[in-house]
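Table S2 (continued). Query chain:
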Amino acid sequence: MHIEMDIPESAFSALRLSPPQFARQLRLAAALKWYEAGMITQSKAAILAGVSREEFLLGCGKFQVSAVQTTAEELAEELARD
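Corresponding output:
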């Protein structure tokens, strides 16, 4: 699927990115945010971002998003099941 967006040219210069680089960063940033919010899984986020799972995890570090999105309660439940 192809989506078009109107983005002011100043956005590219502010981030010092070419339009293709900006588009890649935008996809990654959206995927990271939705992953961080618990809306999508790590694997779906990587697919949405158009990167490998490894690259997605590197993006987590770059954008200071925790690669583990399990709450303490979820972890306790999981440990109780074992």
